[in-house]
UniProtKB/TrEMBL annotation:
Keywords: Kinase, Transferase. GO terms for biological process: polyphosphate metabolic process. This is Polyphosphate kinase 2. It comes from Methyloprofundus sedimenti. Gene3D superfamilies: P-loop containing nucleotide triphosphate hydrolases (3.40.50.300).
Length: 494
């Protein structure tokens, strides 16, 4: 791949000075147009040491409007970043729709470095590249334009560039011992990089390999490439928007489809005396286990889904009563805010991932995409159907990091729900919980049941199963939730 790259190109200072004003004007114009569109742009600048990555990035920052772009530079991960799944630090800095994000030291840096230093095997590298391709596909499916540029130098060119930088007192600081070490490992680096570029260059997200030996040439080439890619993406976006949109498929209830929820025994209950005894026992046990997990830096994520008035809030309160308030957070998910609406739908969940030893509890979660957004038509069919695999990828990233992930569905029947609605209307401090929308949703019980059954069937795995909670009796449901968490913590601590 490197053999056929655009190597040996130069641009004279005169030509450069003539072309830059026009290119800058075009970039600013297209950037202004981009702000009106419902997609973001990610620019990855990678390549060999000494290839001029910093110079190109500085010029892009000079040529573009800083109000609608952000440059994110990544080196070795901080303690805060190491305590979370590896993609967390990239997700939290994703550019909002209508803006540009430039990444220096992207999700490709670590896999390449680890393989060059033999810290991972070829099999491990392939696994990490698969995860990267999944990430880029998820972003592209959401409309994100990913522009990937690799600035390349031949070995002798790299050696010459580093010597020139080191010779000049004003640039000598740019040459580190790591750069010198990497120069000695050039052949290994080039071999691994070539494998990575071949594996991750696709029709949708291709790599552009650019000669980095002449900064004027590489800067103009990168700038023009960015301009052309954004132009083409806008044209494609407008073409798609102008096409007739497919009608949302009606929810079809299949009478012969297995109904997982129907298998639950909603008559299960606990009397008050037994409940109080077990609540005291399991809350005490959870307190000890949670403190030990905190000491051992084992994180937890608990996801609560269920019917309106299904008892999620009550179960969460009994659970958090046993926890140290300094070590957990409860994230209540409602309709996305303006800030969240201009991001990928998973962004608002990634940003709340807990540090090592901490607990995040989601009162409703990323499953809204395949539940309320599916049933109410807030998500197009292609969006919620692909969400099953996107969610599975997310949860694999969490469990691979060692996070204890539990998913609870609190199930009640329609009669019990109506009874609780009526009760809420009579209690002053619960009246805010009941709205006309809650009653309206009852008319779509069958549609939601179908969506829940699909969700459980398609997102349960050996490592991330759903815990279905028989919740007609609140006392039984609360004990089952706390007991299940205790058992999961015990297993993880063992």
């Amino acid at each position: 791949m490197f053999e056929i790259a655009e190597l040996g190109h130069t641009v004279s200072k005169t030509d450069y000075n003539e072309k830059v004003p026009t290119l800058r004007t075009q970039l600013l114009t297209i950037q202004q147009q981009l702000s009106a569109y419902n997609f973001s742009v990610i620019i990855l600048i990678s390549g060999v040491d000494g290839g001029g990555k910093g110079d190109v990035i500085n010029l892009l920052n000079e040529w573009l409007d800083p109000r609608y772009m952000r440059t994110n530079a990544y080196d070795s991960p901080s303690d805060e970043e190491l305590e979370r799944p590896k993609f967390w630090r990239f997700w939290r800095t994703m550019p909002a729709k209508g803006t540009i994000g430039i990444y220096v030291g992207s999700w490709y840096s670590a896999p390449i470095a680890l393989r060059v230093h033999n810290d991972i095997t070829d099999t491990d590298l392939q696994l990490q590249l698969t995860q990267i391709k999944q990430l880029e596909q998820e972003l592209a499916d959401d409309g994100t334009l990913i522009i990937k540029c690799w600035l390349h130098l031949k070995k002798e060119q790299q050696k010459k560039r580093l010597k020139l930088l080191e010779k000049n007192p004003e640039t000598a600081w740019q040459v580190t011992e790591r750069d010198k070490k990497h120069l000695k490992m050039y052949d290994d680096f080039a071999s691994v990089a070539e494998t990575v570029l071949k594996e991750t260059s696709s029709t949708q997200n291709p790599w552009r390999i650019i000669d980095g030996s002449d900064i004027r040439y590489s800067s103009l080439t990168v700038g023009q490439h960015v301009l052309d890619k954004i132009k083409a993406h806008i044209e494609t976006h407008e073409l798609i928007q102008s096409m007739p949109q497919p009608t949302q498929s009606p929810q079809i209830i299949h009478g012969n489809q297995p109904k997982i929820l129907d298998s639950l025994d909603l008559s299960l209950e606990l009397d008050k005396k037994v409940y109080n005894e077990q609540l005291n026992f399991y809350q005490g046990k959870l307190n000890k286990l949670a403190r030990l997990a905190h000491q051992k830096k084992i994180s937890s994520i608990l996801v609560f889904e269920g019917w309106d008035a299904g008892g999620k809030g009550g179960a969460i309160r009994r659970l958090t009563h046993a926890l140290d308030a300094r070590n957990y957070q409860v994230i209540s998910i409602a309709a996305p805010t303006d800030e969240e609406r201009v991001q990928h739908y998973l962004w608002r969940f990634w940003r709340h991932m807990p540090r090592a030893g901490r607990i995040t509890i989601y009162d409703r979660s990323w499953y809204g995409r395949v539940l309320v957004e599916r049933v109410e038509g807030f998500a197009r069919e292609q969006e919620w159907t692909r969400a099953y695999s996107e969610i599975t990828n997310l949860e694999e990233a969490l469990t691979d990091h060692g996070i204890v992930l539990l998913k609870f569905w609190l199930h009640i029947d329609p009669d019990e729900q109506l009874h609780r609605f009526k009760q809420r209307e009579q209690i002053s401090y619960k009246q805010h919980k009941i709205t006309e929308e809650d009653y309206r949703n009852r008319d779509k019980w069958d549609e939601y049941s179908l969506a829940v059954n699909d969700m459980v069937a398609r997102t349960s795995s050996q490592t991330t199963p759903w815990t279905l909670v028989e919740a007609n009796n609140k006392r039984f449901a609360r004990i089952k939730v706390i007991k299940t968490y205790c058992e999961a913590l015990e297993k993880s601590l063992d």
